[in-house]
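Hi U.,

Before I forget, here's the chain from the pilot set. I'm dumping it here mostly so it's searchable later in email.
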Amino acid sequence: MKFGMVSLAWQSPFSDALGQFKLAKKYGCDIYEIVPEDWSTIDVDAINAAKAETGIETPTITGAFGDTRDMSSDNPEYRKGGIQYVKDLSLIHISEPTRQAEISYAVFCLKKKKKKYTKNYST
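Structure:
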C-alpha cells in the first residue's frame, strides 16, 4: 500500500515542488497528486527534478477547471482555455503505474445547467 497527499492540502496554488515533495516524504508519503490551479506557478522541469531527488511519484494530475477553462462552454475563448490547460497538464510526467494493469486517463466535461427563472405570482 502507498500513501499520498494532494497539493491542495498544503499549498494553493501549487509551487515549490521540491519543498512540497520533501515534506510529503517526511510524513511518510509515497505519492503526491498535483492540482495546478495557476499554470504560471508550475515549473515542469523543477517538478520532474524534485520527483527524481525525493522518489515521490505523481501517478495522477488533477485539473482545476472553472468558467475560463470550460471545454464545453459556448464561449470560444473559454473552450480554447480549457483545451490548452489540458495540453499543459500533459507536460508533467506521470509516474509509471505501480501495478501491472493499464491505467487510462480521461477528461470529463460537465456542462452547467442554465438556471430557469420563474415568476412567482401572489394573489
